[in-house]
Specification:
The chain is α+β, with helices and mostly antiparallel strands and 599 residues long. The chain is built from 14 helices and eight strands. The two termini are 92 Å apart.
């Protein structure tokens, strides 16, 4: 089954090329390994066998010469000491013959020549050396020297010729081994050259293949992509070369089509956005005009409306003081209604102005120490707390970034609200605490008042929202709305926790300083307990009570807490303190019975 080359993937083509080159290189490497092994064997033979054989051949000749010299010397002097070279040469001859035979196991010619040398040496000793020695011992030196004639010298020359033949055979074996070493070495060099040529040819083939299979298709694809990038989004992109690149071209073209479709949608969206921006700009201009009108209205409300209202309230009070008891009971009642309505109207206007100023008249954020701030709050709420016999305590509070006047107004509203909505038979107790939760401080204002039913928990933060009659708990119903706006202006959130043992707990969050968060993380990493906000407790009344249970401790409201059918629930916070209400004085610059804290 044949497979067209055009359907081969790039991976398959590269693998086939690398496989062919690898097979060739493996074959060359195998041949090189074999030739290198043979070269090593020949070199080993040359160094450990043939080379020592030449030395042993020379040693054989030296041993025979020593024997001949010893015989001649003994024949001249008849001194037994002169036979020592003969005896040593004989021993050396036999030892050398043994070594040559051991080294020449693979060379039959050397072994045959060695046998010839040994036979001729034995023949020379039998026919020449031994008779000379015996004659010297029995007949004297003269008779011995007579035996050393030309015939004896010819016999020794024949022995020397045999040794020379042995040396020639050894030399021939050495030359043959050297030629083997040279031949295998040359063959090894040739194989290395062949391997280098294979690598070079493979590299050239790989470069040409990459140029044909990779570079050209990629260059073609890149050129088409550049055409699209210049703005020709309708240009069709087609890949070439291996299947991977053709698939890549199809994928890029699909992306081009998607981009072209998205660009069409973007153009349409841009046109719509431009139209919307135009409308928004018109609305912004209209909003700017509306804000100017609102600012003008605020100015009128704070100045022009207040003046006739003060006159109405003043003259109504004059009528009440001067004609009280002189008219009938209905007239006194009507005058009281007029005075009360004028005063409540003043309070509503002042509270509404305070609410509108939050975030608009700003003094800038600074580091505010809530512990020091609580001292100012305690001073501002002291008249109302003294009238109600209320106790205010607070734990260790943090330093946060914010506007000090707004934060003061926030805490004053919360504490005044807690003092105001107290149970008739229980002295009010308010406690402020803080704890670090993540990157925020969670601050809690806990009281022991009448509490809040869960179904009304979200309504109390709505402006002018009241859950009770004004004669039961007087006020404008804007206090907690101001609290919510101040908290959100500082980037936090506020809610009421009703699931507490008694009273209610209003919680709000404020962003913590980075140093506090890092310190908390370091303490948590070291296994330290989290730094809660209930540390050293400060307050106004002596003999502060123990810490109240936290709002997340669970539990239900006690049975003696009034229900909606018994005592109206509290729903506002910025009402005047009871001391102010009972005195009947109208503080036109206040916000719900507390000192105005908004700039």
């Amino acid at each position: 089954m044949s497979i067209r080359a055009g359907t081969w993937t790039l991976r398959r083509r590269v693998l086939v090329l690398l496989g062919m080159v690898g097979a060739m290189l493996l074959s060359v490497a195998g041949a090189e390994a074999y030739v290198a092994t043979k070269n090593r064997e020949y070199t080993d033979v040359l160094l450990t066998r043939v080379g020592p054989l030449r030395v042993q051949g020379q040693e054989m000749l030296n041993a025979l010469l020593d024997q001949e010299t010893g015989v001649r010397g003994f024949a001249v002097t008849a001194d037994p000491e002169d036979l020592t070279p003969y005896e040593q040469g004989l021993a050396q001859e036999r030892a050398t013959a043994a070594q040559i035979r051991e080294l020449a196991t693979s060379y039959p010619g050397i072994e045959a020549d060695l046998l010839v040398v040994e036979r001729q040496a034995d023949e020379w000793r039998r026919t020449v050396a031994q008779p000379v020695i015996d004659t010297t011992n029995t007949g004297g030196t003269a008779a011995a020297q007579a035996l050393l004639n030309d015939d004896s010298r010819q016999r020794f020359d024949e022995l020397r010729n045999a040794v020379a033949a042995l040396q020639d055979e050894i030399f021939a074996a050495r030359e043959e081994t050297a030629r083997d070493v040279e031949r295998t070495g040359n063959l090894l060099v040739v194989l290395l050259i062949v391997a280098a040529l294979v690598v070079a040819l493979a590299a050239i083939a790989l470069l040409l293949s990459l140029d044909r299979m990779v570079l050209r298709p990629l260059t073609n694809l890149a050129g088409q992509v550049r055409l699209v990038a210049t703005g020709d989004y309708r240009h069709h992109i087609a890949g070439s070369g291996p299947p991977e690149f053709r698939q890549l071209g199809d994928d890029v073209d699909a992306m081009r089509q998607k981009i072209a479709a998205d660009l069409s949608e973007v153009r349409e969206a841009r046109e719509r956005i431009e139209w919307v921006n135009t409308q928004l700009q018109k609305q912004a201009e209209e909003l700017t005009r509306s804000n100017r009108d609102l600012e003008q209205f605020a100015y009128v409300a704070s100045h022009d409306l207040q003046e006739p209202l003060r006159k109405v309230a003043s003259f109504c009070q004059l009528l009440q003081r001067r004609y009280a008891g002189r008219l009938d009971e209905r007239a006194d009642q009507y005058i009281a209604f007029a005075v009360d309505g004028a005063q409540r109207m003043q309070r509503l206007i002042n509270d509404l102005l305070a609410f509108s100023r939050i975030g608009r008249l700003t003094t800038g954020f600074t580091d505010v120490d809530l512990n020091r701030l609580m001292e100012d709050v305690a001073a501002q709420t002291e008249p109302a707390r003294q009238y109600a016999d209320a106790e205010l305590t607070w734990g260790e509070l943090p330093v946060i970034r914010g506007e000090e006047p707004l934060l003061t107004n926030l805490l004053v509203n919360l504490i005044s609200n807690s003092v105001k909505f107290r149970r008739p038979d229980v002295s009010p107790a308010v406690h402020v605490s803080a704890r670090l939760v993540g990157a925020e401080w969670e601050i809690t204002c806990q009281d022991n008042g009448i509490g809040i039913e869960p179904e009304f928990a979200d309504k109390i933060f709505v402006i002018f929202q009241r859950l009770h009659a004004k004669d039961a708990y007087p006020g404008t119903g804007i206090g907690l709305a101001i609290v919510k706006k101040i908290v959100e202006y500082h980037g936090g959130r506020v809610w009421v926790e009703t699931d507490v043992p008694e009273g209610a707990a209003i919680r709000f969050t404020l962003p913590a300083l980075p140093a506090d968060v890092e310190a908390e993380q370091a303490d948590a990493g070291a296994g330290a307990a989290p730094s809660a906000g209930d540390g050293t407790v400060g307050g106004e009344a002596a003999g502060q009570p123990a810490e109240r249970p936290s709002a997340d401790a669970g539990g239900t409201a006690p049975a003696d807490v009034p229900r909606p059918g018994d005592v109206p629930e509290r729903g506002d916070a910025t009402e005047r303190g009871d001391a102010t209400e009972r005195g009947g004085a109208s503080d036109s610059g206040g916000t719900g019975g507390v000192k105005e804290a908004v700039g």
